[in-house]
Amino acid sequence: MSPGDFSLTEEPVLSRNALSRDENRRLDPGYVRDTWAKARVVVVDESGRTPVDWEVEPGREFREVDAAAWDDAAGRGGHVRTRAGTDVAAEPPAEAVLLGEREGVPYWAVRVGTERTADSDIFTGEGEWADLRAAGAFLDPLGSGLLTGAVATLNWHDRARFCAIDGTRTRPHDAGWARVCDNGHEEYPRTDPAIICLVHDGADRVLLARQPVWPAGRYSVLAGFVESGESLEACVHREISEEVGIAVSDVRYLGSQAWPFPRSLMVGFHAIGDPDVSLTPQDGEIADALWITRDTLRAALARGDWGTRDEPDPTGGPVVMLPGKVSIARTMLESWAAAGG
């Protein structure tokens, strides 16, 4: 085992999925046609929101509850509110997406406009309209899989209405998992891979950085998109060098998580860097970068998702705010913090 090696202590929250996908069912016209009568449908508005039911302790908002405290077996958590397929339409809408099946129940996703959410009884009632960034960390595994898959595929449909080869209009095909243009060219949902890397010194320090658009004091681990013809590991070396000006070694895979904003896949790694090498933040990309100790990181994690810089750090280190639990970055940081003595 290499110095400072560790693994994720839990699955990234948007990787949780209780849904069974089956490509053969998407390609079966009979299944697609007949399944609508018993389907449940996830409705997603133009802002990526869907109705969510929250079961929380009296007087507490869901955003105030530590995700680790949710107990799905006890009925506490967030649940995506689905609708009967026949309540949405008599047959699958042209741009509906067959997400998968669970315990014999097929699940679909449809995009709805904001005017429908306000005017139709189908979309009203108890529940709160929430998106993945706000709600993803608190959803049960079924809800997480449903909303992540729905947002990712519907985002792709919104951006794939014209053929990349000849410019003609495309139409949905294969239960929403392909689009075909007037000349028969097929296109499939795009996923843009990106690496996200926790750089540490092999001992007790971790490297954090801040983008210029983030609030002062908010830091995370480094990330960047994979370029054409580039391996994931090569991207780790390039991105770290470009963004903070240091070389890393011993690149190790940690895990992955969908990040459909609009269509990314975050592939997590950790690597070793030298804290004695001067950091050179990339102009326009990184506003600031710094090394902090494991104890300082633990203090930041203890402040929770909504901790602020107004709370002093008991270790005497810099006060930093960290990414929320919906991000794989949070899982990576929590796992590294837990790995030390």
Any overview of this molecule?
- The chain is an alpha+beta fold and 341 residues long.
- It folds into three domains: 14-158, no CATH class; 161-189, no CATH class; 191-339, Nucleoside Triphosphate Pyrophosphohydrolase (Alpha-Beta Complex).
- It is 23% helix and 27% strand.
- The chain is built from nine helices and 16 strands.
- The radius of gyration is 22 Å and the shape is globular.
- Residues 57-76 and 116-121 have low confidence and may be disordered.
Topology pattern, helix = H, strand = E: HHEEEEHEEHEHHEEEEEEHEEEHH
Approximate strand percentage:
25-35%
Bin the helical content: 10-25%
Largest sheet: 4 strands, mixed
Oligomer: single chain
Spatial gap, N to C terminus: 16 Å
What is the number of E strands?
A: 16
Level-1 CATH class name of the largest domain: Alpha Beta
Give me the Rg, rounded.
Answer: 22 Å
Unreliable stretches, pLDDT < 50, 5 or more residues? 57-76, 116-121
How many independent structural domains? 3
CATH topology of the largest domain: Nucleoside Triphosphate Pyrophosphohydrolase
